[in-house]
Prior knowledge:
Blueprint: H1 2-9, H2 17-42, H3 51-63, H4 67-85, H5 92-107, H6 110-116, H7 120-127, H8 146-166, H9 175-185, H10 189-208, H11 211-233, E1 238-244, H12 248-262, E2 267-272, E3 279-288, H13 292-302, E4 307-312
Antiparallel strand pairs: 1-3, 1-4, 2-3
Amino acid sequence: MQFMARLRHLKIGKIEPLELGKQAVIIVVGSLAFGAGLSWFLVPYKIAPGGVGGLSQILFHFFGFPVGISMIVMNIPLWFVGMIFVGRQFGMGTFAGFFASALAVDVLSPRRMYKWGFLREMFEKYNILPDGSIKPLNQWALTDSIFVAAIAGALLVGVGIGLIFKARASTGGTDVPVAILKKHLNISMGNGYLIVETAIILFTGYMFRDVNIVIWSYFALFLSSRFVDIVTEGLSRVKAAYIIPASNEAAERIKDRIYSELDRGATYFQGMGTYSHLPKTILYVTFHIRQTARLKRLVLEEDPGVFMVMHDVHDVIGYGFRTRGIEM
Length: 328
């Protein structure tokens, strides 16, 4: 009843066909990357970087259940639970994301790819042993190195998830329990993911009785999370600086050159030296990473006794900068 009530009160915005088509293409591309990373590299080596994909590997290697089908079966009840206990962010975007990505895992499975004639020579290279025997089908991969498999698989999975996120969708899975922990137990999203993913990785390692799987899974989880950040937010190309000139006159000269040579604005702060107890004028400026050397040069030219601190900036919203964030 509560779920139906939520559905009745769910407001659906105006659908733009062009935007919807763009999102669909991004979800498909992201799902293909996700499916290739999981099927070609992680699943054959039992590397489980958390999520229902990790749990599905247990069913695949022990019982032969298709990984993608298992992911869909697990995700559907989680999706309903998310709609009931969390809210509208677990709507059709999440459903489309987890369904397409899970479907891609099975469509791109090594057995199907080999049967259809795709990448046949590569699969034979890595899965037909020197004595002519063939590896079991559930161990077929596009590499004979677990190290390469962990890196390639994490890269593709991270890129795939990142693209799906950019389409304002989700792969479901652990997003649901993490959101529930956040909403009802006030556990941060970061700690929530750490708790849930750790539990899944440890459980997978226990089921396969292999500590190495736990280590490789954490390695892949770390890499994939970094690639998700890169895809969704991009590489940070922005820096900022606190500039404390020796005099107000030097501050004015530096400010003028920042305007004219870097085409950037600046903000004055009024501070006080803790040793001299004299007032200090502080400039704060954000700039592109390519402008770092020019900023250093012009500041030192105007005030050799300047004190300056530069740091990386995660995101900037305002004139001259593009935000790195995405909306879900």
